[in-house]
UniProtKB/TrEMBL annotation, chains A, B, C, D:
This is Prephenate dehydratase. The record marks T174 as: Essential for prephenate dehydratase activity. Its EC number is 4.2.1.51. The keyword Glycosyltransferase does not apply. Pathway: Amino-acid biosynthesis; L-phenylalanine biosynthesis; phenylpyruvate from prephenate: step 1/1. It catalyses: prephenate + H(+) = 3-phenylpyruvate + CO2 + H2O. The keyword Lyase applies. GO terms for molecular function: prephenate dehydratase activity. InterPro entries: ACT-like_dom_sf, ACT_dom, Chor_mutase/pphenate_deHydtase, Preph_deHydtase, Preph_deHydtase_CS. SUPFAM superfamilies: ACT-like, Periplasmic binding protein-like II. One of its GO terms (biological process) is L-phenylalanine biosynthetic process. Residues 196-273 form the ACT domain. Keywords: Amino-acid biosynthesis, Aromatic amino acid biosynthesis, Lyase, Phenylalanine biosynthesis. It comes from Nonomuraea diastatica.
Amino acid sequence: MPRLAYLGPEGTFTEEALRLLDPAAERLPCANVSAALNAARTGDADGAVVPLENSIEGAITTTLDEFAWGEPLLITAELLLPVQFSLLARPDTEIAHVKRVYTHPAAITQCRAFISRELPDAVVVAAPSTAAAAQEVSLPGSPYDAAIAARIAGEHYGLVELASDIGDRSDTVTRFVRVGRPQPLPAPTGSDRTTLVVFLADDHPGALLEMLTEFSVRGVNLTRIESRPTGDGIGRYFFHFDFEGHIADARVGEAIAGLHRVCGEVRFLGSYPRADGVTTQIRRGTSDDAFGEAAEWLARVRAGQV
Amino acid sequence: MPRLAYLGPEGTFTEEALRLLDPAAERLPCANVSAALNAARTGDADGAVVPLENSIEGAITTTLDEFAWGEPLLITAELLLPVQFSLLARPDTEIAHVKRVYTHPAAITQCRAFISRELPDAVVVAAPSTAAAAQEVSLPGSPYDAAIAARIAGEHYGLVELASDIGDRSDTVTRFVRVGRPQPLPAPTGSDRTTLVVFLADDHPGALLEMLTEFSVRGVNLTRIESRPTGDGIGRYFFHFDFEGHIADARVGEAIAGLHRVCGEVRFLGSYPRADGVTTQIRRGTSDDAFGEAAEWLARVRAGQV
Amino acid sequence: MPRLAYLGPEGTFTEEALRLLDPAAERLPCANVSAALNAARTGDADGAVVPLENSIEGAITTTLDEFAWGEPLLITAELLLPVQFSLLARPDTEIAHVKRVYTHPAAITQCRAFISRELPDAVVVAAPSTAAAAQEVSLPGSPYDAAIAARIAGEHYGLVELASDIGDRSDTVTRFVRVGRPQPLPAPTGSDRTTLVVFLADDHPGALLEMLTEFSVRGVNLTRIESRPTGDGIGRYFFHFDFEGHIADARVGEAIAGLHRVCGEVRFLGSYPRADGVTTQIRRGTSDDAFGEAAEWLARVRAGQV
Amino acid sequence: MPRLAYLGPEGTFTEEALRLLDPAAERLPCANVSAALNAARTGDADGAVVPLENSIEGAITTTLDEFAWGEPLLITAELLLPVQFSLLARPDTEIAHVKRVYTHPAAITQCRAFISRELPDAVVVAAPSTAAAAQEVSLPGSPYDAAIAARIAGEHYGLVELASDIGDRSDTVTRFVRVGRPQPLPAPTGSDRTTLVVFLADDHPGALLEMLTEFSVRGVNLTRIESRPTGDGIGRYFFHFDFEGHIADARVGEAIAGLHRVCGEVRFLGSYPRADGVTTQIRRGTSDDAFGEAAEWLARVRAGQV
């Protein structure tokens, strides 16, 4: 039974993601993303589950930077979790009496309309996580009347649900990934995603276009690009890429090797099944068969057998 | 005397940026970036100063999203501000007695080495801004012993500096921009930057490559790209671009018009002098003169005068 | 009634093309392509009809080089002429007695199978044109028994047709163009072609890719590219391009102006209706309306009206 | 001692090229390029020497088409031969008496200024080759007074040189290649050229741009591109490419394999030392070492060793 670290405390959306990714795993809550990843790195845990991006908030930059700069880890699975917020309070609280609300800033942003409409006079205070807010509210002497958090957090901390699905959009999704220490990769499935970090050797005009061309010329479709500062001053960035396919695919391997040749440093973060199950469309001439046939042809031609 | 809104309270790095951008301006502190921008939009202020990105933390996503989704504003100036953190406390506090520190999470990240080395046993608590942390520490009954903030915040709230320049890197820089309601643009200087937001008409493989080609074919160099979620689900993004040159430049105007034609929506955020004063290098055949000469030639040729 | 020069003598395929392009024109046969074009340049004729390329033989390099180096001319029309060869002889000649055949080398190439099969023992001699061959054969004392030429040449010179449509392929086509001195261009029809000559400013790796990108980024499709030597040594070339659309089209104008800016010299050879009548497919965002709307938007944005 | 076929008769520029390429070879003159190549194909000769392009006239299309459509041959060497024309006549002929000149049409083009200036009243008649013209003029009863041909032809046929180096340009060069049946390739030298023929799988807008990108993304520089008709109608072409490097080079092999995958058919025509001895400049990240290192890295990463 693997032991997986996650962004705690119990009741976070990340815990929910972990339960869905591996129901049988032992769960090790950690104070923040870095701590969860470090638990996986040191062996305190067999792996970790962390959020990577949210369909409203965007990238979780702590996760991106940990993946880029920390000891190497490999992504082995991803999960898309619809994020539904509930207004949670101690039993017997009435919504009319909620004057002080505690929650994570991302939840404040995503529940703005509900707060304006239903809690126009309430003070809303920022908490380090939605589950921490629920935990705080569950304490008898808490100065807060309610928390905005996942329903699971309410169940965990003995709170009741005053209102459910209170986000401005009902289709908010967070993407979580499971990571582990370097290990054999999940086998290709035909519906895979690969994640990379790329540092430029020298930052020159057109460098990004060159990187994208390494993908496009081999029929590899990008699904996400993020730039992050290298720390060496404004205007210096490195890049996170997600794209379709598995590094075991010939076209993907050649594209990544191409980036490795022309860029400063490429860090491979994993190839793993897509959570949405979408099958990779393979452009003419870029299948493994096409690569294999071309390699045989090239060998013959190099031997002068034209 | 213009009145400029900014991310307050008094003593923030943003206030320092505002003072440098416009020493004579009246200053209107606001609770957060959105409030400062709204003050500019509604006319409560004549403009606003907000942070756009930091050389360690990356983009300030609130600013990016406000620029993309809120009522249009125009960037009219930028400033690069070295960010130096100080450890600030009430008079008579000794560093050996600092057990509880209050500051913004970004400062925690950026001062990690100092904290580990000098304050190994201290509890560090997250504050909404560095200046708010200084303000809180200045209160007689504060539960916190020290704040990490800008020196200016210490001066403002009557704190003393226990240690200065405590960031892990001494070259951390934040980029601030001054914005205002739609207005005539600053004149081109030969050392300008332009900022855009681009939404894709339809998200297809190669869309990003196409956008970059609109720039590169006309010799326009990108200096920053950020992707942000559209809110329509994981995998749907829009883009922020900074690039060299002024929209009044022929090559820049043609590139932006090209994006406007082939993308779903382009929002122009401004052309303004670069804070670093770097002169734009103009590739052969892309100067205003070259465009003007080509337009005259085209007119003659279209009239059959070959 | 215009007077048009052409590659003579009477009976050439070019004469046939001229008759189809302008049945009412007065016809001025010339000894070669250069002479025909010079007649148009000097005013001896109002224009000229010359072959540009053949679906088997490829480009007529004399025509290409005259267009590139000679006094400027404008193409105003094109014609695709199926080329059918006949075996022509003086009356009373039997095919079994044909021992010496006279024709243009291109016709030898294109009738190779017929000659091997039907005239295995004949000597085939090269003539300057197919019509000249027919003319020669028509002379009473000619050393040749038959000519391979257009049927029209046989009619003209009083020859009989021993065999018709004797080409290896029945779908051979030659493309002819009508040219004149610089003049107002034919109006756009929605099914137009444009022809250019481009000389490189400096020959560097990627120069051709850059030229093609000027077309592709604006949705202009190439239909023909030819390289020709500049005369400055092996490895130095200039280029002939045909592409879809009319220089009056906004996307075409911008692409040509772009080439003019970044290349050494661009010579415009004309925009004219396509002989095949194929309507130009216009990619999203590249119609004249899209360009007009983008120009208006750009003007507003440059005025700060965002 | 190898036996090499060439475009005869004795005294052609091709014979001169052959002597320079392989002084010891037995020489087999042939009536035309096709016959010379066929002699190599059938084994009548061990190889052939044929012209490929001329710095004034451009491509020798017969050679290009034979390479593309005929039984496969491999280019094993190239030679650049300065082409100098002489006016040759039977002994005792004076230039003032030259009224009828016989030569190849290419020579007429290239000696136009000399002919206008020195032989304004002469009739110039087209011959199948310059050497054939010299041979004809050497016959006692020849109707021609002089030939324009290589000096070597004059020596061979007993003619005297009335004028030498009479071309309009003194730097005209013809590129010859030596070909043979399929065989082991010449070893890479660091100054190599590779020649290919590429047929498109389906002719779509952007197909040429895609082909060029296969080269450029791997740092392979084109030195020549020629389009030739496929014979399937106007607007359908295939392409000849020359580019820097040897198919044994990793970057060249990968580029050619890429073309093989995405195009209809690629015919490899050979990798051989450049006649001009120019060393191939290798762009960062495209050396064999860079490819080898990237392949090792990829293998490790695919095994999960990040």
